[in-house]
Design brief:
With 308 residues, this protein is of the alpha/beta class. 42% of the residues lie in helices and 13% in strands. The chain has nine helices and eight strands. Strand 2 and strand 3 form a beta hairpin.
């Protein structure tokens, strides 16, 4: 019998990998992309370190075997089916999913207007580095945030020399958008994929949001917005003015690098806990028979980097 799998903690993983035009399978126990070059031509196998990746984005032209999906689930890697350039989200496989105790905690904070306001104020403070105006409702804070976001887009566009009108794109007609908006869409899609993987790994529900509501990824949008202008927006604007042939691909690669440089995966889960703690209520105790965390971090006997 093989020893039980020890999933790598989310903070120690590569953030994101994109795969297109290939069949994903498990060959000799390894997670691979099979690229069939032609009739009677030996296929090319590209190995993917699935257990060391937080999120794999599957673009058009990919097929996934049952064994590959099962292996990704066992090692806690989120599979996300997306459209061309990673913009449209079609489906996602949950690595672990929500835990009952954390789901109840999140839902209680979201359903109580006073508790929700405390969490929203904390999100505002984290995002803008200052306390929000006093005596404002969630709706008023959302309006203030929207105005600051539009102004920040304009300032960053001026800083990087990007011709900018407004944030505007149509996912059903990709080519009608200008290059800056296409780059921003690809960049934010990458950020949302990584954030969703972290939210699920932490045991929370992507749909229960505080600023954003009513969407399947409302909480993902809430958390991703904390990092958007620090990470992906500058990358998107830099790429938009670089003149590269395929800006969408270039921005995805640049996002992968900036996620690693900013140690994003190390920060998301602690920041989620910190933001929700602003509600100042204790988390419900988990039942004795509750399912444990998706990524248990047992204390090893070695130093940093020694997994035992």
């Amino acid at each position: 019998m093989l020893p039980p799998l020890k999933p790598i903690p989310i903070k120690e993983r590569l953030s994101i990998v994109y795969i297109e035009k290939g069949e994903i399978d498990v060959v000799d126990g390894a997670f691979v992309v099979v690229d069939q070059q032609g009739y009677r031509v030996r296929p090319v196998l590209t190995h993917i370190p699935v257990g060391g990746v937080a999120c794999i984005m599957l673009e058009p032209g990919t097929r996934v075997s049952h064994m590959a999906a099962a292996l990704a689930a066992r090692v806690g890697t989120l599979l996300v089916w997306v459209g061309e350039a990673g913009v449209r989200l079609y489906s996602a496989g949950q690595p672990g999913g929500a835990r009952a105790d954390r789901l109840l905690y999140q839902a209680k904070l979201a359903l109580d207007e006073m508790l929700r306001l405390k969490v929203v104020r904390k999100m505002y403070a984290v995002r803008f580095g200052e306390a929000p105006p006093a005596r404002r409702s969630v709706e008023q804070l959302r309006g203030i945030e929207g105005a600051r976001v539009r102004k920040t887009y304009q300032l960053l566009a001026q800083q990087y020399g990007v011709p900018w009108k407004r944030r505007d794109y149509n996912p059903d007609n990709w080519d009608v958008s200008d290059v800056p908006n296409r780059c921003l869409s690809s960049a934010t899609a990458a950020l949302y994929g990584v954030t969703e993987a972290a939210v699920l790994a932490a045991g929370y529900a992507p749909a229960i949001g505080f600023i954003h509501t009513g969407k399947p990824l409302s909480f993902v949008y809430d958390i991703a917005d904390l990092y958007k202008f620090e990470t992906v927006v500058p990358v998107a604007f830099k790429t938009a003015v670089s003149g590269v042939f395929n800006p969408e691909r270039a921005v995805r690669l640049a996002c992968r690098d900036v996620f690693r440089q900013t140690k994003l995966l190390e920060r998301i889960i602690p920041d989620i806990e910190d933001v929700l703690a602003a509600g100042e209520i204790p988390r419900p105790e988990a039942p004795s028979d509750a399912v444990g965390p998706a990524f248990p971090e047992a204390k090893g006997i070695g130093d940093v980097g020694h997994r035992s």
